[in-house]
Model the fold of this input.
Amino acid sequence: MQLTGKQKRFLRSKAHHLNPIFQVGKDGVNDNMIKQVAEALERRELIKVSILQNCLEEKDEVAEELSEGTGATVVQIIGNTIVLYKESEEHKEIKLP
Done:
């Protein structure tokens, strides 16, 4: 799913007050983490993932792995935090402009 600039700005403003609910450490991204992130995206639609300093992978690689594994869109990578969005099938709350 491709987002327009306006939609990304909207989602960034929504994500501003959120706290990261997942952390990627030295083990990087694994299948279990992808499964849990996908479930959280289905419930919340918009989440933050924090990358710890001991993570051996680059943040761009982590973002790509998570987005490919879950089918989500990377809204933003700021510092060591990734913002992911995926439209929910059952719990749709966010209406994109």
